[in-house]
């Protein structure tokens, strides 16, 4: 009998299955996630178009807080009350003062010699005298015409009275037939004619009186008009003597002595330095945001002062609108006319808004987008900007608190979509 191989068999125990614990599975998952993040970061890194060192840019974080909207502009100290004297006519200027000289109201500052204006005044004065003589003559002529008309009327009345007496005297003779019928009718006609002449004489006298009165009134009106013309010319000639309109100092003289000045040319400025204000040149784009009464901070170099907006110029000059700020309380000491200052006008205040430090990016990108840094890569992010201030801007859309944004140095990116940031 052949033996089997059962004696050579060796029993092998089954291997025990090592099951991983839950903690080990969590660790493996975390590792896979980290690797995924690293791979995604490396992928984004690989998509970057450029590479820029961190020290070449400036980064700020988006924060939630209060934004005080304001604008900072340059300005200068000016007199609150300033008067400029202009040439009322073309002529030669003779100065009677110098810049910096103290003056009182009414002091003579300069005289203007205008031969044309003086000649015109002489002509109009002669015309006035002629018109005065004409009116005087008209009054005499009027009285003469009235007397002549009255004489004619009186003579007509006298003739009528005589005709009436003659008619009464001859009436008895006509009744007894001492006179012929024709003679009696002639006497009656003479009486009627005398009555008609008397009536017309009185009417002519009235009309002549009205006509004379009308002519005299017309000449008188012409005389009054001529007097107004002469008075205006005398005022203009008197205005050739330029006098100080206020108490103060002669601020500037825009012409040299004995020089020829054109009409309406600025000549002398008188300022009252006891009351000073600040004149700020605000960009035209902010003109609609500024209102009367807004608070303002004035940097005077070694000190600061508070003030408020008191006036806004109605016109734009060199893309700027001039805004006047009056000091609050007492005027600071040591101020000088035309002293350069820095002003800040407070436009509004917003609470609980997203803010971002202001930088060159706002002007460079027009406030349409920024470069947001994530995982070492700066990528272009569209945003919307709200209110702005000197140091910060309001972000209304596109960013969240904690986002890191490139606020300076983005010109090194050359408008790339993604840029690697090297530490």
Describe the structure.
With 423 residues, this protein is of the alpha+beta class. The protein has a domain at 115-238. It is 35% helix and 35% strand. It has four helices and 20 strands. It has helices spanning 22-47, 115-175, 181-238, 361-364, and strands spanning 50-53, 58-61, 63-86, 91-95, 102-103, 108-113, 241-243, 248-253, 260-261, 266-283, 295-299, 304-312, 320-327, 340-357, 369-374, 377-382, 384-388, 392-397, 404-408, 418-422. The strands form three sheets. A six-stranded mixed beta sheet has the order 1-20-16-15-19-2, with helices on one face. The protein has a six-stranded antiparallel barrel with strand order 3-10-13-12-11-14. Helix 2 runs antiparallel to helix 3 (181-238). The radius of gyration is 53 Å and the shape is elongated. The two termini are 87 Å apart. Residues 15-19 and 37-46 have low confidence and may be disordered. Its main location: other. The chain crosses the membrane at residues 25-48. Keywords: Coiled coil, Membrane, Transmembrane, Transmembrane helix. Pfam families: YknX_C (PF25989).
